[in-house]
Amino acid sequence: MRYIRYAILAAIAIVLVSVALANRAIVTLTLLPEALEELAGWNVSAELPLFLVILGGVAAGLLIGFVWEWIREHKHRAEKARQEAEAKRLHRELRRAKVKGEEADDVLALVDKKAG
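Predicted structure:
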C-alpha cells in the first residue's frame, strides 16, 4: 500500500514538473480591469511565470474547498461532542448508581444476618 501511495505521488510530481516546464512564459496579473484601475486611481499588478499562476489557482481552490467543508461540517462535530459529553455523564451516573446499589446490598445483608 505504501508503494502505491509513493507511485501516485511520483506521478503527480511528474505532471506538476511537466506543467511547470511547459508554461514558463511570464504573464502579467492585474487585480482590476483597466477601466476600473482608472476609476480607482491605483494599479495592482504582478509579473509571474504562468505555471505559478496555474498552481497558485489550484492551491487557492483547494484551500477554499477545505475551509468551506470544515465550516459545513461544524454542525456534525458539535453534535458528536454533545453526544460524547452525554455518554460521559451517563457513565458517571451509572457508576454512582452501582456504588449506591452495592452499599445498599451490604446493609441489607447485615440486617438479614441479625434478623436470622
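Summary: Residues 24 and 104 are 82 Å apart (CA to CA).
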